[in-house]
Fold this protein.
Amino acid sequence: MAPSLPALPASLLAAALARSAATPLLTSYDDATGERVELSATTLANWVAKTANLLQEELDVGPGSAVAVALPVHWQTAAVLLGVWSCGAAVLDTAVEDEGRAAEADVVLADQERLPSLEDLDGPELFGFSLHPLGSGMTGYAGRARDFALEVRGQADVFTPYEPADPAGPGLRAGGVELTLEGLVGAAEALAGRLGIGAGDRVLVDDGTAAEAGPVAWLLAPLAAGASVVLCRRPDGAALARRAATERVTATLGPHVDGVRALGRG
């Protein structure tokens, strides 16, 4: 029997596609704007492939590269993280203000509000994100950053890496945490087990909890468990119970909703 291949972050999304390509995998709300965006595994995989192709084709990102992600918790951030890992590159998580870490990267991906503090970095290619719910480009910006939304659209919908990812290569540097690409999956599987995330769960998580816990918790652990995510940015607490019912939420990470299982508690 041939040995099994090491599990990588990209394989978690591939498994979600194989399980159910069309059902919701990531549903994102922003209560400050009223937006709701729903992505199936197929749609998320399309964004991931386009992101990975942009990074590889335009910027030579691959194993050994480092990409600083200066983005808030958002559905586009999920696509970016998985796109970077699909290239076999490392994510430098700079969600908290940390221009020093961004300067170590080959590429910096940042939301438009953070661009002014990053434009003087010497070396990294800089891309800006509007974080528009429909993926539209930036408006009112005249700096040196390239517009991610405009440049990603023309990329191919299928990604093939030029060089296979090294499972032992760096995958994430966030705060004092450093994980390899293979270690990301191991950490996600272990965390899913500790939290009690099960296959078929629909997990409601708020952006504050997600930002504090990191992408292994809010993105990779549900994927590893075969669950889906309802992500709430700037949540209206009064609306959470109604949203949990509408979205058929089975568990929460962070928010308390009466009658819904709280992950990691008891």
